Amino acid sequence: AVDLGSNSFHMVVARYSHGQLVIIDRLREMVRLAAGVEANGEFDRAAAARAIACLERFGQRLRAMRAGTVRAVGTSALRVAHRKEPFLARARAALGHPIEIISGREEARLIYAGVATTLPREPHRRLIVDIGGGSTELIIGRGLIPIELESVRVGCVVISERYFGEGKISAKRMAAARVAVRQQLAPLLDTFRRRGWQVCAGSSGTVRAIGEAIRELNPRTNVITASGIERLANQVVAAGHTRELRFWAVTEERRPVFPGGVAILAEIFKVLGVKEMRVVDGALR
Questions:
Q1: Ppx/GppA phosphatase N-terminal domain: which residues (predicted)?
Q2: Which fold has domain 104-279?
Q3: Cα separation of 249 and 229, whole Å?
Q4: How far apart are CA 187 and CA 235, in angstroms?
């Protein structure tokens, strides 16, 4: 499976053995494709070059895979890009396998399928949140069955580029970012509140980094709480610039997009009334 995400590209090779999937190989590279979408909707040369170089490395690892055994999907950045066929032709040649661009709802469905298989078989409803580079997926489901699927066009790369340009962070910028997230979430609030859930889980590298940063602030917690995410948001603002973010969990390559991810998750907690969130390993791939 290959996931051409808006922030990172992922490759996972697995074998089905004795009723379960066994991971054979995996690779992840931060490409930040969404950051390379220009005003005319095309990818700039630097972003396209990063993406093709990454796919060539993936292709080398997948060279022995038979046709039809690899599923590669493109998500938000590829959905919104214009005149993407020349790029896709190069991408397919680099990877050596077909690439399909999936809808936001299909992305949400695949994320839920990936996460649900890693969670205990419980009878109650779950809210799953996945923050990507160009979009955020929210799913309510029970067991292996999704009930509500939504994809919102706010992602850590897009929000960080728009509201924390050049790495600058302030209370005013954070407030503006959160207002933008709130506006995008507004259409789904009534449905999600009416459905309700008993357990909330978050997937993606952004959520994982946020969870680990919160643990650095409070080592006694092993979940993301409403108070924890607000405390982290305040710490991010206090840093003043992405280069001043001092969390072990926030790598140098993640710093430029971290404030956007924090703004998104903090606002999800606030408007949906989430009390706490477990961080899980499952994802689209």
A1: 12-285
A2: Nucleotidyltransferase; domain 5 (3.30.420)
A3: 15
A4: 30
Handedness of CA 211, 214, 218, 224 (dihedral sign): negative
Distance CA 43, CA 252 (A): 23
Element containing residue 90 per DSSP (H, E) = helix 85-95
Q: Which residue reads 């919102």 in tokens?
A: 152
In degrees, to the nearest 5, what angle opens at C-alpha 157 toward C-alphas 169 and 174?
A: 30
Give the torsion through C-alpha atoms of 260, 266, 267, 271, to 10 deg: 170
pLDDT, tens digit (0-9, with 9 covering 90-100), for 68-94: 999 999 999 999 888 889 999 999 999
Predicted TM-score (pTM) of the model is 0.90
| Nearest partner of 113 among 198, 27, 6, 3, judged by Cα | 3
Residue ranges of domains in the chain: 2-101, 104-279
Q: How many CB atoms lie within 10 A of CB 132?
A: 32
Q: In sequence order, which ranges of the chain are alpha helices (DSSP H)? A: 45-61, 76-80, 85-95, 104-116, 156-163, 171-195, 205-217, 226-239, 258-272
226's tokens: 């409403």
Asked if 195 and 147 touch (Cβ cutoff 8 Å), the reply is yes
Report DSSP letters for 141-207, one per residue. Answer: EETTEEEEEEEES--HHHHHHHHSGGGB--HHHHHHHHHHHHHHHHHHHHHHHHH--SEEEEESHHH
State pLDDT tens for residues 41-64: 788 899 999 999 999 999 999 998
Contact 275, 111 (CB under 8 A): no
CATH number of 2-101: 3.30.420.40
- CA atoms of 23 and 73, how far apart (whole Å): 19
* Single-letter amino acid, residue 191: T
